[in-house]
Design goal:
InterPro entries: FAD-bd_oxidored_4_C, FAD-bd_PCMH, FAD-bd_PCMH-like_sf, FAD-bd_PCMH_sub2, FAD-linked_Oxase-like_C, FAD-oxidored/transferase_4, Oxid_FAD_bind_N, Vanillyl_alc_oxidase_C-sub2. GO terms for molecular function: FAD binding; oxidoreductase activity. Its cofactor is FAD. The protein is of the alpha+beta class. It has 15 helices and 16 strands. The protein has four domains: about 1-90, 2-Layer Sandwich (Uridine Diphospho-n-acetylenolpyruvylglucosamine Reductase, domain 2); about 95-210, 2-Layer Sandwich (Uridine Diphospho-n-acetylenolpyruvylglucosamine Reductase, domain 3), CATH 3.30.465; about 220-325, Alpha-Beta Plaits (2-Layer Sandwich); about 335-435, Alpha-Beta Plaits, CATH 3.30.70.2740. About 35% of the residues lie in helices and about 20% in strands. It has a seven-stranded antiparallel β-sheet with strand order 13-10-12-11-15-16-14, sandwiched between helices. Strands 5-6-9-7-8 form a five-stranded antiparallel β-sheet. A four-stranded mixed β-sheet has the order 1-2-4-3, sandwiched between helices. The protein is globular, with a radius of gyration of 23 Å.
Length: about 450
């Protein structure tokens, strides 16, 4: 049956690149979660918006689910095709379409990598400020579909703030132009923001118009060593009060241990239990302020040591200590939690969560790191070699239910920046009310009446 359906797709679009080899199905059928066995029927790589519309119309007629695919760097199973779906990869749609110097916008196809967007903005003397370690492989369409955050949210906000417009092919095959780059538009519902963070469940983002801004002012990077977990938010408050922070990231000694084993040089002669990487605007005034903030924290026993970058190369080296964490943990295929709370709720949440994980994971290695400046934590649990995968996942899901209850009590979210996908679907009700979920289902039914778009993700049909 699959062959007959694919033959009809080939007949409809003779120039369409269609992959069916097992290695391709495995490669395109999964994301970084590695928890599901990929089993797509095929992988379609369209070259135009018209191709995408034709594929969606075909899928409706044939009753085929579509899994949109960007760089597949997500951590929630949002790009997994495990049930015979058609993977629709946007990687061939990677062009820069237009630059507008007056509006300071860049219009691109959805498959373009984030790093190329950043480089193109710099060529025009501007910047696209959203940034994260996977910049070379993640795609703009995927960034928008998950409202990706990254390492500079404390200064620039999430992807949502930088999207002036999108073109969306809905689940019924219609092409909608949402936002159109307008600064002001109060003509009804803003469907652009529905497309953002929709995880491919409403349609396929095929183009985006992105806002650009002034190039960043010179900055410095500082690595701080902290003696205790409790000092974390006090150090953040001290530095935020004196400096224009671009980023404020934290990691534990366990996280640094894995990064150093991966090849990075140790930053201090002595090991410390907690670390912060912070970046801030650099000028004569800020140099005095950072020394004052560091001196204040040192005097109060909130920091134990610190090093400030003296060159761009040293700044990049300090950032590698934070950005290399995910890469250094990849071989363990960790179970990941990506959670957020309001910054004001962070101290109480941190204390309660640290106690919970210490109690529930006595035999497992837990790696903490995250964007502490915007209330986002990444919690990675590493599977012991002797533990069966099924038993490991079951134990982690048991603890995640407890973590979700803590998040609900503190008004937090089970997904800060990677979406709900398959991994976090059971915990959506801890973040969204029954009325909200019902409204979300209604929106999906309106834009994807046959339920073909990324089926089974976010919530069940």
């Amino acid at each position: 049956m699959s062959d007959a359906r694919l033959e009809s797709l080939r007949a409809l679009l003779p120039e369409l690149r269609l992959l069916v080899e097992p290695a391709d199905l495995e490669h395109y059928g999964r994301d970084w979660t590695r928890r599901w066995t990929p089993a797509p029927m095929a992988v379609a790589l369209p070259a135009s918006v018209e191709d995408v519309q034709a594929i969606v119309c075909w899928a409706n007629a044939k009753g085929v689910g579509i899994v949109p695919s960007g760089g597949r760097t997500g951590l929630s199973g949002g790009a997994v095709a495990a049930n015979g779906e058609l993977v629709l990869s946007l990687e061939r749609m990677h062009k820069v379409l237009a630059f507008d110097a007056v509006d300071r916008t860049l219009t691109v196809q959805a498959g373009i990598p984030l790093q190329r967007v950043q480089e193109t903005a710099r060529e025009h003397g501007l910047q696209y400020p959203v940034d994260f370690a996977s910049r070379g492989s993640c795609s703009i369409g995927g960034n928008i579909a998950t409202n990706a955050g990254g390492i500079r949210v404390v200064r620039y906000g999430n992807t949502r703030e930088w999207v002036a417009g999108v073109k969306l092919v809905t689940g019924s095959g219609e092409l909608m132009e949402l936002g159109r780059g307008l600064v002001k538009d109060s003509s009804g519902y803003d469907l652009r923001h529905l497309a953002i963070a929709s995880e491919g469940t409403l349609g396929i983002i095929v183009e985006a118009t992105l806002k650009l801004t002034d190039p960043p002012s010179p900055s410095n990077v500082m690595l701080l060593a902290l003696p205790s977990f409790e000092a974390l938010m006090q150090v953040f408050a001290a530095f935020r009060a004196r400096l224009q922070l671009q980023a404020f990231e934290f990691l534990t000694d366990v996280a640094l241990k894995h990064v150093l084993a991966h090849g990075e040089p140790p930053p201090f002669e002595q090991a410390h239990p907690y670390y912060v990487v912070t970046e801030f605007a650099s000028d004569e005034a800020s140099e005095a302020e950072v020394l004052a903030a560091f001196g204040q924290c040192l005097e109060q026993g909130l920091v134990s040591d610190g090093v400030i970058s003296a060159s761009d190369a040293q700044a990049a080296q300090l950032w590698r200590l934070r950005e290399a964490i995910t890469e250094s943990l990849a071989r363990y295929v960790p179970y990941k939690n990506d959670v957020s709370v309001r910054i004001s709720a962070m101290p109480a949440f941190l204390a309660e969560t640290q106690a919970l994980l210490g109690r529930e994971y006595p035999q497992l290695e837990v790696v903490w790191f995250g964007h502490i400046g915007d209330g986002n934590l990444h919690i990675n649990i590493l599977k012991p070699d002797a533990m069966a995968q099924d038993a490991f996942v079951a134990d982690c899901e048991r603890v995640t239910k407890l973590l979700a209850q803590v998040l609900e009590a503190h008004g937090g979210s089970i997904s800060a920046e990677h979406g709900i996908g398959l991994v976090k679907k059971p915990y959506l009700s801890c973040t969204r009310s029954a009325a909200e979920i019902a409204a979300m289902r209604g929106i999906k039914a309106a834009l994807d009446p046959n339920g073909i778009m990324n089926p089974g993700k976010l919530f069940d049909a």
